[in-house]
Amino acid sequence: MRIDSATRDQLQAWEKELSAQYQRICQHELSLDITRGKPSAEQLQLSDRLDGILNGDYRAADGTDTRNYGGLEGLLCARELGADILQVPTAEVVAAGNSSLTLMYHAVLTGYLFGFAGNVPWRDLQAPKFLCPVPGYDRHFAICEQLGIGMVNVPMTDSGPDMDAVEEQIRQDQDIIGLWCVPKFSNPTGVTYNKETVDRLAQLAQFANPGFRIFWDNAYAIHDLEQQVNLPSIRAATLENDTADSVLQFASTSKVTHAGAGVAFISASSANLASLKKQMQAMTIGPDKVNQLRHSRFFAEFTMLREHMQKHAQILKPKFECVLSQLHNAFGDADLGTWETPKGGYFVSFNTRPGCATAVVKLAADAGVKLTPAGATFPYGKDPEDCNIRIAPSFPPLEELDTAMAVFILCVKLASVRQQLALP
């Protein structure tokens, strides 16, 4: 189906046929959900051995009784696990609770209220702003919006953020104090940053506000679907450019073990960690070290973690293939949308024709298929072109996902034809 070359009579015939199909689907009273990238029950079961793994032995290798208070930085063995995931020295890692999002919020709040490494608190600037590669992660944007930090869109390319746009914005505005990054299998595009992008990111602090920080949310560092995709080291690049203070790295086991009971990590320079720990001392007496010990024993060697992630990939790969094959079969020779083909992560990014995404999401919802709200992948929930939709294949069983995608495709076709018919 190619809409741009269709006659009005063809469009009207298509609309009638698609509407009839849509009404039949609505009668089935479906209740399907592909909104968020949650692990499926089958994935969660891969880590059920965590329950009881300590078998009454709560002592860490260094003698720490994990049942008690203390240990602001987390257990050494847990920090070593985080260092393996992020490929950084253990000395630069703090292991915390279950959520890297919590760590990111805490880090943004620290910068906003107190500043990092002796720099001016962001709240003292005239109009502090973050650069936000789009489409991007809605929860990053929510942090900035809640704290009143402005957000500036920069386009994503197939190698990472548009670095010309990033550099221009930073040179023009010293109130830009942050940049959100999901550097490997970006949410939602699935893009992995290349070496040129990483090198240019590492050089930003040479001309940015001294308090500028890159928030390097490496949520999918080990979430390859098949062959391992290598992400260039931002730490190595900053050391080469004497800008190590400009980056804060984050990761967690939320999509590795039990999503609600994992371990989160932050890695940063000693100056940044000192700033963060100063605030942490006022808000906690230490993390859940029992859970950290469980994870350290579950993944006694990094090879065990790699093998575990291969099991995740075996579950996820057929689901991604389902989404991508349906999109290709429906739109491979059409002009109704474009999409990415990720090699890992948790999402597929789909772009409708401009102005159609909101209509597609509503049609799908009315037919019983929940999608992430249109605009969610942009700051303030406003997609200027109303075209991006994030598809999350991981949670539903394959049969339900197959049905959900069939409904999604029908809704894209119907919304596109109706939009074209409404044109003068």
UniProtKB/TrEMBL annotation:
Keywords: Aminotransferase, DNA-binding, Transferase
InterPro entries in alphabetical order: AspAT_Ic (IPR024551), PyrdxlP-dep_Trfase (IPR015424), PyrdxlP-dep_Trfase_major (IPR015421), PyrdxlP-dep_Trfase_small (IPR015422)
Record flagged with keyword Metal-binding: no
Molecular function GO terms recorded: DNA binding; L-aspartate:2-oxoglutarate aminotransferase activity
Top-level division of the source organism's lineage: Bacteria
Keyword ATP-binding: no
Pfam family, one: Asp_aminotransf
The protein's name in its UniProt record: DNA-binding transcriptional regulator, MocR family, contains an aminotransferase domain
Biological source species: Microbulbifer donghaiensis
